[in-house]
Amino acid sequence: MVILKSKHEIEAIRKACQVVAECHRTIAPLIQPGITTNEIERIFDEIILKHGAKPYTKGYKGYQYTTCASVNDVIAHGFPSDKPLAEGDIVTIDTVAELDGWLGDSAWTYAVGKISPTAEKLMRVTKECLDLGIALAQPGNRLGDVTSAIQQHAESNGFGVVRDLLAHGIGRDLHEEPNYMHVGKPGKGLRLKEGLVFTIEPMITEGTYNMTIDADGWTARTLDRKLAAQYEHTIAVTAEGPQILTAQ
Q1: Residue of 18, 90, 136, 207 with fewest CB within 10 Å of its CB?
Q2: pLDDT tens string 24-40
């Protein structure tokens, strides 16, 4: 069941989302060759706790970290580590903060030093996919309007759209309805209504969209071990248009 949120509830969710946004604003200038994803993990922890919030994913279904840190061919759910990031890497940092019982969720892909033209294009197109999807998150539109725009833009640039990991509604729970893939057909799927709060989080791949899961049960990698990128915002559908609650 889709749980529509009141304006008051959307503002409460926005507060949690802005804790996540501050995390991303803080680390953006710090991601350089030599930093470790464990260092990024500690920074996120400090910011979230400073605001009286909780790192929601720590302990979620056995996951042990505040962040997911996904490097190069890792699509999502990579573990933070003490391995330094290297020149040319790309890394996606994802986190969820809980504040007063409400959740905010955002992921962002960062370049580490100078990256390849392919990586640059992948990051650019993935961010464009997010922006195209957000623009269509209007009352009366269908979810397929959002997802088809993302799919068309990614595939027209020669990239793949991950099917096996889903975007989702969000509020007091992390995975509310709708749970959906970033592919589809215009005019199909759930009709978007004022008060819907959900994530748009395209995971775009350099090659195949098929993936594998590592032996740790979490780390999702591209099957062909080519690059993946992801940008995610938490969005509220309102009469005034889409509101980006995790805006940085």
Answers
A1: 207
A2: 999 999 999 999 999 99
State yes or no: 233 annotated in a binding site. no
CA neighbor of 190 nearest in space, from 174, 179, 199, 200: 179
What average pLDDT does the segment 206-225 reach?
98
Q: What is the 3-state secondary structure (H, E, C) of 15-38?
A: HHHHHHHHHHHHHHHHCCCCCEHH
24 annotated among ligand-binding-site residues: no
As a whole number of angstroms, the distance between CA 246 and CA 233 comes to 6
Does 9 count as an annotated binding residue? no
Q: CA-to-CA distance for 219 and 129, rounded, in angstroms?
A: 23
Computed over every residue of the chain, the mean pLDDT equals: 98
Partner residues linked to 74 by β-bridges: 221
Give the position of tokens 């980006």: 244
The two structure tokens encoding residue 209: 């969209």
pLDDT score, position 56? 98
What interhelical angle do 143-156 and 117-135 show, nearest 10?
A: 160
DSSP 224: T
Which contacts of 213-222 are long-range, i.e. CB under 8 A and separated by 24 or more positions? 216/79, 218/63, 218/77, 218/78, 218/79, 219/70, 219/74, 219/77, 219/78, 219/79, 220/70, 220/74, 220/75, 220/76, 220/77, 220/164, 220/165, 221/73, 221/74, 221/75, 222/73, 222/75
Q: Has 89 been labeled as part of a binding site?
A: no
Q: What percent of the chain has pLDDT over 70?
A: 100
Q: Residue 94 annotated as binding? A: yes
CB-based burial label for 92 (10 Å; 0-12, 13-18, 19+): buried
Global model pTM greater than 0.70: yes
Which amino acid does the sequence have at 143? L
